[in-house]
Amino acid sequence: MENILVRNNVKVFGQGEKTIVFGHGFGCDQNMWRFVAPQFEKEYRVVLFDYVGSGKSDLTAYSYERYGTIEGYVKDLLEVMEALNAGKVIFVGHSISSMIGMMASIQRPEYFECLIMVGPSPRYLNDESGYYGGFEREDVEELLDMMEMNFVGWASYLAPLALNNPDRPLLTKELETSFCSTDPAVTRKFAEVTFFSDHREDLAKAETPSLILQCSEDSIVPVGVGKYLESHLKNSTFRLMEAKGHYPHLSHPEETVRLIKEYLSSFKEDYVD
Amino acid sequence: MDERLDRAPCGYMTINSQGIISYVNQTFLDMGGYSRDDLMNHHIESIMSMANKFLFHTYFYPFIQLYGHVDEMYLTLKSSKGESIPVLLNGKSYEGNEAEKIECVFVKMTRRIDYEKEIRNAKREIEEAYRIKDEALEKLEALHRDVERKQEELMRLNAKLESLAVTDTLTGLKNRRYFIEKLDSHIDHFFLSKTPFSLLIMDIDHFKKVNDTYGHLTGDQVLREFARILEANSKESDTVARYGGEEFIILLPEMNEMQSKQAAERLRKIVEEAPWSSCPVTISVGAATFTEHDTNISILAKADEALYTSKSNGRNRVTHSADLDGSS
């Protein structure tokens, strides 16, 4: 138990009885919630965490086998909730984390009261059937390439050497203001898991009520994707935000908090009925 | 100042927190082949590919919002002709008069990125080379383990063959060849140390009759039983062998004439009194003790002669060659 809390760098605060868990998306960590999460601490027990391989998680817990598919991240979320004995929670997930939350809710519906999906997408790639996810495969290849060239140590980090030397000290230098602090190979794998995953088939299996927060000009996830989710997810509520971009929780925290709270209060009334 | 900024040796741009361009310098416009109208009040993402938009969204905005600045971000921008322009971007946010502004500096890095990609490719090649090397090493080690295993197998087989080559298959005793080797080494030892030694040749009496009466299987059984008696009644240092047919031989180290006669008599008596499974068996024994005039041939001939004497004197007895009339 204890080691899962360390492994996933779990932070708990707030005074509520009910627990609200925030899951970060690809390329970031729990810091992304710093303008939003504190707004819930008066009414909720707030839980923040980093998926293994991101932020200040324990990199030694990473394995390509476990985290080669979204299933490893789903396990992280469920294990964190079990370690905290969190009961039925409200889960807020950004981007890929929305799908991680949804997959977890399919496995363990009893753990989830509702899902708040911020900029969710069940499939980032376009497909011949006419589905428009926003990305072509070449875009993703280019992205992986761009990311690699942006990482610290992309030239000095020799993967086989690192594997041969398990004692190799992890990057200890404080790189808080840089996005390059994580292991480039691990981040690349997470990008592949994110962009090549396809959860359209899973949508029908989800029963947990959900709120879809879609930015009005999200250049990563087209509005059509949010609409697609609304029509395929049972018990879902779609809200188009005034916020533009893909990070409303950073760029428009007030609106993000307001919409989540509105949903939770309406949801509470429904729930009591 | 504005004039100098306009012509500064780097692209310069101001955007608001939504990414709308509110200022762009001439150097930047020249870099991408744009006119001021192409970019002013447009979104910075309008000159980015999908991948760059994502990168910008994932890292630039969040880090500007969290930490106020972004350093050395590598991006590619689209020129007006659709070409990719690799740039290094530094951004810094500040509170303007009315709203948050982000100042961006772009440095073109066409040559630099080529170098860096070359380094990256070299790194990949090295990684691949390491992988191949590790694989080859793994194979080599497997091969080595295989060779070692086969070597052990070979040594085991060799030992088995060696033992087969000196063993009599019917009785499990040593064979004649082995005995001769032992005899030769005792002779060598004798001439060095003058330590005496003797040997006994033993022959089962009327063995032909056993075969004729009870059959060859019983004959073989008698041979095996005799071999067990010899083994059970000899010392570790003695060499017991089947000499041929129903003849057995035993080399007795450090025994002189008298001791060898006693040993022979003891064996003769044990055989006579042993509980044989098919029929009573006796043996005739010829003994000889090595002297400095002997060779391996002469001592065997002497023992043989003594055995012949035992036979002709009525069997079931011991004769030492030293007691024969002719030898002296």
Question: Helix-strand pattern of chain B, N to C?
Answer: HEEHHHEEEHHEHHEEHEHE
Q: What integer value in Å does the Rg of chain B equal?
A: 52 Å
What's the CATH first level of chain A?
Alpha Beta
- Biggest interface, CB < 8 A: A-B, 38 and 37 residues
Biggest sheet architecture of chain A = 7 strands, mixed
Number of helices of chain A: 9
State which percent range the strand residues of chain B make up.
15-25%
Strand order of the largest sheet of chain A: 1-3-2-4-5-6-7
* Uncertain residue segments of chain A: 155-180
Keywords (chain B): Coiled coil
Protein name (chain B): PAS domain S-box protein
Domain GGDEF (chain B): 195-323
Domain PAS (chain B): 1-41
Structural summary, described in words:
Chain B: This is PAS domain S-box protein. Chain B: GO terms for molecular function: diguanylate cyclase activity. Chain B: Keywords: Coiled coil. The complex is a heterodimer of chains A (about 270) and B (about 325). With about 270 residues, chain A is of the alpha/beta class. Chain A has helices spanning about 1-5, 70-85, 95-105, 135-150, 160-165, 185-195, 225-230, 250, 255-270; strands at about 10-15, 20-25, 45-50, 90-95, 110-120, 210-215, 235-245. Chain A has one domain (about 1-125, about 200-270): Rossmann fold, CATH 3.40.50.1820. Helices cover about 35% and strands about 15% of the residues of chain A. In chain A, strand 6 (about 210-215), helix 7 (about 225-230) and strand 7 form a beta-alpha-beta unit. Residues about 155-180 of chain A have low confidence and may be disordered. Chain B is α+β, with helices and mostly antiparallel strands. Chain B folds into three domains: about 1-110, 2-Layer Sandwich (Beta-Lactamase); about 110-165; about 175-325, Reverse transcriptase/Diguanylate cyclase domain (Alpha-Beta Plaits). Chain B has helices at about 1-5, 25-30, 35-40, 50-65, 110-165, 175-195, 205-215, 215-230, 255-275, 295-310, and strands at about 10-15, 20-25, 70-80, 85-95, 100-110, 195-205, 240-245, 245-255, 285-290, 320. A five-stranded antiparallel beta sheet of chain B has the order 2-1-5-4-3. In chain B, strands 7-8-6-9-10 form a five-stranded mixed beta sheet, sandwiched between helices. In chain B, helix 7 (about 205-215) packs across helix 8 (about 215-230). Chain B starts with a helix and ends in an 8-residue tail after the last strand. The mean pLDDT of chain B is about 90. The interface between A and B is large, with 38 and 37 residues.
